[in-house]
Amino acid sequence: MTRWKHILVWTLLLLPGVATGASWARSYVRRDFLYWGNELSGSRREACRLYSSGGRLVFVSQIYGVPEDDAQGPERLAYFSGDRAATIERAREVYLQVAQSGAPSVDFAGVQYARHFAALSSGDRQWASLIVPWWMLTAAALSPAASVVWRKARAARDGRASGTGAGDPAPRPV
Fold first, then answer.
1. CA-to-CA distance for 57 and 129, rounded, in angstroms?
2. Which residues of 101-136 are buried (b: 16+ CB within 10 A; e: fewer)?
3. Would the pLDDT of 68 be above 80?
4. Among 23, 36, 168, 171, which one is least packed by beta carbons within 10 Å?
5. Distance CA 123, CA 66 (A)
6. Kind and range of the H or E element at 132?
C-alpha cells in the first residue's frame, strides 16, 4: 500500500473516534439540542429530541395524536447550543420527557431505555427514551482502528513464533 493510501485509510478509521471523543468532551461544557418531527399515518405525529450533556447522549421520542384540521404540521428541524446556564429551560423540557417515558426497562453499563404508553383525553401517547454514555459511543467508533492494530500485532507475533521470518528483524551488516 502506498504511503498516501495508508494515511487515508488511517484517517478514515480514526476520524469517527476523534469526532465522538470531541463531542464527549464538549458535552461537559455545553449543551446541544437537535429537534425534529415526523408526520405519521393518519393524524399522528412524532416529536424527536436529541440532547447531549454531561457525558451522555439522550434520545427522546413522543408519538401523539392531533386533530384532523391541524394545519401546523410537524416540528421543523432545529438545532440549539449553549453553555449550561443559558440552556436550563431546554434541559428541563428534555428531562421531563425522559421522566414521562417511565422507569428504564433496560439499564446496562450506563445505557438506559424506557418506553411508556398512556391513554389521555387528547388521544393515546407513547414516549420512548434512550440514554447512551459518550464513552461507549467513542469506544465503538474507535473499535475498527483498534481491531486493525490488534490484527497487525497478532500477525507480527505469529510470524516471529513460527519462524517464517515475517516478523524477524533484518540481519545486521557485518
1. 11
2. beebeeeeeeebbbebeeeeeeeeeebbbbbbbbeb
3. no
4. 171
5. 8
6. strand 123-133
